[in-house]
Write a structure and sequence with these properties.
The protein is α+β, with helices and mostly antiparallel strands. It is built from 11 helices and 6 strands. It folds into 2 domains: 128 residues, no CATH class; 87 residues, no CATH class.
């Protein structure tokens, strides 16, 4: 996902004007995400609607075929039709906050408190979707999204979620993996305790440092991120916070590549 990174002293969400929302991560660092536009969400909904309609046509044909061969076979309705009613709930649950339409439009459901969106959040969104979109033809959802300021419909407000844009990263330098020598030993083997989200935060902070190297706020940001990551690793930061974060990214790259390429390392 795209966005700028900011220092956060408390776990809170700060609403950004116009088209962004600021979300705290587990490392006590706030990241600025671009909210999905109304156009993106409407287009995603139309794409999903077309997919569901086509699936219903196929499902009705299958139900008719089963009924023709085995009259009174009611189970066919549940097998072929009922799952389509759960399309949005199932797709967001298994596609990490995306339906097929959302994936095409490169938007995703995320939680405002920075924690991963789970089944409970997706279920709440799906239940209120029945009222907001299915029964009211999307009118309530559209009005709520426009006036809310965070791009939330009622289901998002109840679930503590919003829909943000996803930036497809195409350059190696934009990923969590740095271009480092694989044969070098990691300075901090403890990076094995981190996950992709931790290292993504470190890279975002380093990008912010490059953009505003002399800013005192960015210096505090780097120190804060380094403190959070070092605590999770169980190590101490000796020297520059920026240098520590760079080392963490490089070490994570080495350890991750060895684990994925060498079966004996697992």
């Amino acid at each position: 996902m795209s966005g700028r990174v900011y220092y956060a002293s408390k776990h809170r969400v700060i609403k950004e004007p116009l088209s962004t929302v600021r979300i705290d991560t587990a490392q006590n660092v706030a990241i600025d995400y671009e909210i999905a536009s109304v156009g993106d969400r409407v287009t995603a909904a139309l794409l999903d609607g077309a997919i569901i309609f086509a699936a219903y046509m196929v499902a009705f044909a299958l139900v008719g075929l089963v009924e023709l061969q085995n009259p009174g076979t009611d189970w066919a309705i549940f097998v072929f039709l009922v799952p389509l009613l759960l399309y949005h709930l199932l797709s967001e649950t298994f596609l990490n906050g995306q339906s097929i339409g959302k994936r095409i439009m490169k938007v995703r459901v995320v939680r405002l408190d920075g924690t991963p969106a789970g089944f409970g959040a997706y279920l709440m969104r799906w239940l209120l979707r029945i009222v907001e979109i299915t029964i009211c033809y999307g009118s309530i959802a559209l009005v709520t999204i426009v006036i809310n300021g965070r791009g939330q419909r009622l289901g998002d407000m109840a679930a503590g979620t919003c829909v943000v844009k996803v930036k497809k990263r195409t350059r190696l330098s934009d990923t969590i993996y740095a271009n480092v020598a694989d044969d070098a030993e990691p300075t901090f083997p403890e990076v094995a305790r981190l996950d992709d989200a931790d290292v993504a935060v470190a890279r975002d902070v380093l990008a912010a440092v490059r953009d505003a190297r002399r800013s005192p706020a960015i210096k505090r940001l780097a120190e804060n991120a380094a403190a959070g990551i070092s605590t999770k690793m169980g190590v101490t930061v000796d020297g520059s916070a920026v240098r520590f974060l760079r080392t963490v990214v490089d070490d994570y790259n080495r350890v991750s590549r060895r684990t994925s390429w060498d079966p004996d390392a697992r």
